[in-house]
């Protein structure tokens, strides 16, 4: 095992920071050997089989091409739930776990209809369905690939959620039969002009449909959702968004113009304006 740890560290040292290499070493050994962190420490002197060496080598070659570890392994953890991911869906981010945490804190024991717009892997929808078991959760996405993965994630975790194909930019609200008690969305919010500051592992591998919005209209998705919310969110109920930190105030102003009140902006763990919630005043 010691030899494998050294091999992983040597192979990745020019590409990843030291902290990330440590995390990757642990993830790789957990995946290949099915070892917990304690097992890794206990088995430091054990010798891995040739096939396990080969598995590690294959992972390392893909990591060297900047491929995200979550796509290489085909899964990740989100809010304690095992979530399958593939190149057609965004890899769930830690900030989005913070959004789930916030919703659960502010809506303890919610019993009602929850809608997650732009559900991707289904991570938000499934976490809410798991921790608010008396609610009915729906997830919408334009991407069939994402909806298939979200459905698979629901099945594998034995969590009930309903995934539907909808284009939020062309939604006819008169066709929506229900009104929701909470709407959440982490829509595409990165401007095209921000691309130049982004890492290759995101740009080359993650779906641009999930990430980007035109520079000329950065609030496009938020506006469409706020507009739809006026008819599909029950009066007095709340909307929650993950937002682009560059547009906190603008997003607040926009939702207020649609008649939402009691608007709060929340910071993420890095101190950036990252979430907004607002009440539909009816
Ligand atoms: C930033 S990702 C969020 C995925 C997931 N909710 C998460 O937090 O990891 C945005 C999602 O919006 C979806 N999307 C993009 N355009 C859309 C549209 N017009 N209507 C509905 N969903 C859309 C993408 O397919 C993607 O899954």
TrEMBL record:
<dbReference type="GO" id="GO:0102559">
    <property type="term" value="F:peptide chain release factor N(5)-glutamine methyltransferase activity"/>
</dbReference>
<keyword id="KW-0808">Transferase</keyword>
<dbReference type="InterPro" id="IPR040758">
    <property type="entry name" value="PrmC_N"/>
</dbReference>
<dbReference type="GO" id="GO:0032259">
    <property type="term" value="P:methylation"/>
</dbReference>
<keyword id="KW-0489">Methyltransferase</keyword>
<keyword id="KW-0949">S-adenosyl-L-methionine</keyword>
<feature type="binding site">
    <location>
        <position position="186"/>
    </location>
    <ligand>
        <name>S-adenosyl-L-methionine</name>
    </ligand>
</feature>
<comment type="similarity">
    <text>Belongs to the protein N5-glutamine methyltransferase family. PrmC subfamily.</text>
</comment>
<protein>
    <recommendedName>
        <fullName>Release factor glutamine methyltransferase</fullName>
        <ecNumber>2.1.1.297</ecNumber>
    </recommendedName>
</protein>
<dbReference type="InterPro" id="IPR004556">
    <property type="entry name" value="HemK-like"/>
</dbReference>
<dbReference type="GO" id="GO:0003676">
    <property type="term" value="F:nucleic acid binding"/>
</dbReference>
<dbReference type="InterPro" id="IPR002052">
    <property type="entry name" value="DNA_methylase_N6_adenine_CS"/>
</dbReference>
<dbReference type="InterPro" id="IPR007848">
    <property type="entry name" value="Small_mtfrase_dom"/>
</dbReference>
<comment type="function">
    <text>Methylates the class 1 translation termination release factors RF1/PrfA and RF2/PrfB on the glutamine residue of the universally conserved GGQ motif.</text>
</comment>
<dbReference type="InterPro" id="IPR050320">
    <property type="entry name" value="N5-glutamine_MTase"/>
</dbReference>
<dbReference type="Pfam" id="PF05175">
    <property type="entry name" value="MTS"/>
</dbReference>
<dbReference type="Pfam" id="PF17827">
    <property type="entry name" value="PrmC_N"/>
</dbReference>
<feature type="binding site">
    <location>
        <begin position="186"/>
        <end position="189"/>
    </location>
    <ligand>
        <name>substrate</name>
    </ligand>
</feature>
<feature type="domain" description="Methyltransferase small">
    <location>
        <begin position="104"/>
        <end position="194"/>
    </location>
</feature>
<dbReference type="InterPro" id="IPR019874">
    <property type="entry name" value="RF_methyltr_PrmC"/>
</dbReference>
<feature type="domain" description="Release factor glutamine methyltransferase N-terminal">
    <location>
        <begin position="5"/>
        <end position="74"/>
    </location>
</feature>
<dbReference type="InterPro" id="IPR029063">
    <property type="entry name" value="SAM-dependent_MTases_sf"/>
</dbReference>
<feature type="binding site">
    <location>
        <position position="141"/>
    </location>
    <ligand>
        <name>S-adenosyl-L-methionine</name>
    </ligand>
</feature>
<feature type="binding site">
    <location>
        <begin position="118"/>
        <end position="122"/>
    </location>
    <ligand>
        <name>S-adenosyl-L-methionine</name>
    </ligand>
</feature>
């Amino acid at each position: 095992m010691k030899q494998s740890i050294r091999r992983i560290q040597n192979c990745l040292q020019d590409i990843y920071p030291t902290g990330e290499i440590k995390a990757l070493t642990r993830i790789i050994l957990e995946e290949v050997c099915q070892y917990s962190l304690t097992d890794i420490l206990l088995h430091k002197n054990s010798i891995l089989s040739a096939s396990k060496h080969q598995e590690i080598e294959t992972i390392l070659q893909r990591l060297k091409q900047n491929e995200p570890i979550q796509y290489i392994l085909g899964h990740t953890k989100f809010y304690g739930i095992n979530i399958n991911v593939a190149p057609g869906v965004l890899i769930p981010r830690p900030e989005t776990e913070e959004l789930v945490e916030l919703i659960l804190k502010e809506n303890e024991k919610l019993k009602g209809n929850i809608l997650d717009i732009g559900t991707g892997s289904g991570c938000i929808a499934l976490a809410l369905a798991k921790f608010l078991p008396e609610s009915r959760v729906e997830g919408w996405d334009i991407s069939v690939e994402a909806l298939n993965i979200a459905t698979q994630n629901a099945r594998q975790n034995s969590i009930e959620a309903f995934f539907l194909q909808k284009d939020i930019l062309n939604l006819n609200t008169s066709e929506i039969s229900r009104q929701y008690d909470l709407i959440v969305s982490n829509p595409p919010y990165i401007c095209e002009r921000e691309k130049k500051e982004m890492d290759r592992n995101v740009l080359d591998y993650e779906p641009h449909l999930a990430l980007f919005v035109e520079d000329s209209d950065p609030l496009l998705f938020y506006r469409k959702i706020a507009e739809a919310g006026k008819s599909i969110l029950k009066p007095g109920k709340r909307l929650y968004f993950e937002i682009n930190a560059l547009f906190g105030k603008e997003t607040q102003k926009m939702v207020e113009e649609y008649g939402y009140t009691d608007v709060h902006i929340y910071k993420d763990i890095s101190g950036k304006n990252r979430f907004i919630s607002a009440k539909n005043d009816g």
